[in-house]
Backbone:
């Protein structure tokens, strides 16, 4: 054997040994999920999970805010600790995770963390929102937020379905300030929710956005959780939910599961347009119920708040789609969405007034969507009971001779007409079930409806049309929620 050949083999063996040593060392290194990184906000007043992978049996120590937690990686290399509950803090601190290697995460705050999810109207980015203005409602400084936003106590994390694998940069989180590129791509509704929340709470707010345009609800639910039979209180059996329905679990596995069990305060949900195109109503309500319960189960907290947006008016009946539509399909879907209010710790905002054109599936005014969601959270989660967070909602009706007298919840400072003109989009029917437009008048915070065509009224409906943008509001400016007194699902949904 020549000396040169011997030397070449020696060099090759040396390099191979070095690569093997590096590989072994790399396998032993602590690796963190993408959601744990610099600039993140940790949830206050709750145990805070910190987790990752390392070599089997490797000792891992996590230090943060005066706490030190130690554990050992299990047989599959998984490790996790829980930091004890902490008070809110605007003081940036470091988290040190130490094992075979040491990771230092910087500029971490403690406050409130919310996950917002859904389809395109939740994904709707700040850069799109900034150019909208309206002569009636006036321009909003959304564009100014992209230029002047300077509150580093609001932090944002954008879940990108192809980029949730762990990496060594730990740079997923960003302050929501004008100089950060991520703000332009972040959910406008989510950002303005955080901005309004901070204005009241004055503590750090963390927002995680995980949304996909055009997505149905099924992909956001773990497929195994979709294997469910549906039975109403009346005994009626609906078509079962199926694990292969609507690409169940597609986004759950890539955009929700990687975030679990990051400590949260609650969820925001803005989705349903895809379901309405499919003419879903009561089955959609059960799908959303399944999503709510399964996410709460994933985070091991059955009381996590779930606040959502009732979708906007849109001309579904004219859309080119495989399913036939009438102008009643959207109101029926609104009704299904409202059924979820029967579940604990839920809240809904109505946005029938935030539409300039019913042929636009992506209406603007996401700053107002965020503000209304924040009102719900502030009222129901943070104890600001003086803040009215809903428009008038149907309570009951009473037939008085040839009229129907309607009583409402959530009247706030009183029932009014937005433009001081007669109330619009009310209709009534007699025993024949034929609904006709009704005259509607406010009297002592009740609405009295009647029509000369219906001398003996039986039922009443409000905003029962996909184009309905009524002027009926409370004094706080929040629109009344569409309803029908002949709701067939209210007493049988569970």
Residues:
């Amino acid at each position: 054997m020549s000396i040169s050949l011997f030397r070449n083999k020696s060099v090759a063996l040396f390099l191979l040994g070095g690569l093997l040593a590096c590989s072994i060392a790399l396998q032993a290194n602590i690796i963190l999920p993408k959601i744990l990184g610099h600039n993140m906000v940790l949830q206050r007043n709750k145990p805070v999970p910190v987790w990752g992978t390392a070599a089997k049996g490797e000792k891992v120590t996590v230090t943060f805010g005066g706490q030190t937690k130690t554990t050992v990686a299990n047989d599959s290399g998984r490790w996790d600790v829980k930091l004890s509950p902490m008070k809110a803090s605007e003081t940036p601190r470091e988290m040190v995770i130490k094992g075979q290697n040491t990771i230092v995460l910087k500029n971490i705050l403690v406050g409130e963390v919310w996950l917002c999810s859904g389809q395109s109207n939740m994904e709707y980015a700040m850069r799109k929102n900034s150019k909208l203005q309206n002569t009636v409602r006036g321009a909003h400084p959304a564009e100014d937020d992209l230029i002047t936003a300077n509150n580093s106590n609001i932090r944002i994390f954008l879940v990108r379905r192809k980029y949730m694998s762990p990496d060594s940069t730990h740079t997923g989180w960003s302050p929501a300030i004008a100089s950060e590129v991520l703000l332009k791509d972040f959910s406008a509704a989510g950002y303005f929710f955080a901005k309004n929340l901070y204005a009241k709470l004055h503590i750090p707010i963390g927002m995680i956005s995980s949304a996909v345009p055009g997505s149905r609800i099924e992909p956001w639910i773990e497929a195994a959780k979709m294997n469910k039979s549906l039975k109403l209180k009346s005994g009626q059996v609906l078509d079962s939910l199926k694990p292969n329905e609507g690409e169940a679990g597609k986004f759950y596995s890539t955009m929700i599961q990687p975030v679990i069990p990051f400590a949260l305060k609650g969820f925001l949900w803005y989705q349903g347009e895809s379901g309405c195109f499919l003419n879903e109503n009561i089955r959609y309500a059960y799908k959303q119920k399944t999503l709510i319960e399964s996410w709460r189960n994933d985070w091991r907290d059955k009381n996590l708040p779930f606040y959502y947006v009732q979708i906007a008016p849109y001309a579904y009946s004219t859309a080119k789609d495989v399913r036939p539509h009438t102008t009643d399909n959207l109101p029926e879907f609104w009704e299904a969405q409202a059924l979820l209010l029967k579940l604990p710790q839920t809240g809904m905002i109505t946005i029938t007034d935030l539409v300039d054109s019913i042929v636009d599936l992506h209406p603007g005014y996401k700053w107002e969507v965020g503000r209304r969601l924040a009102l719900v959270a502030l009222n129901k989660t943070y104890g600001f009971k003086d803040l009215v967070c809903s428009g008038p909602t149907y309570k009951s009706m009473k037939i008085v001779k040839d009229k129907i007298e309607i009583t409402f919840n959530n009247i706030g400072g009183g029932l009014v007409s937005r433009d001081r003109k007669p109330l619009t989009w009310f209709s009534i029917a007699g025993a024949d079930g034929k609904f006709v437009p009704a005259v509607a008048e406010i009297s002592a915070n009740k609405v009295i409806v009647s029509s000369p065509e219906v001398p003996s009224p039986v039922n009443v409906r409000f905003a029962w049309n996909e184009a309905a943008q009524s002027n009926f509001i409370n004094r706080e400016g929040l629109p009344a929620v569409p309803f029908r007194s002949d709701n067939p699902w209210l007493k049988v949904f569970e």
Remarks:
- The domain at 173-380 is CATH 3.40.50.1110 (Rossmann fold).
- Residues 1-26, 131-138 have pLDDT under 50 and may be disordered.
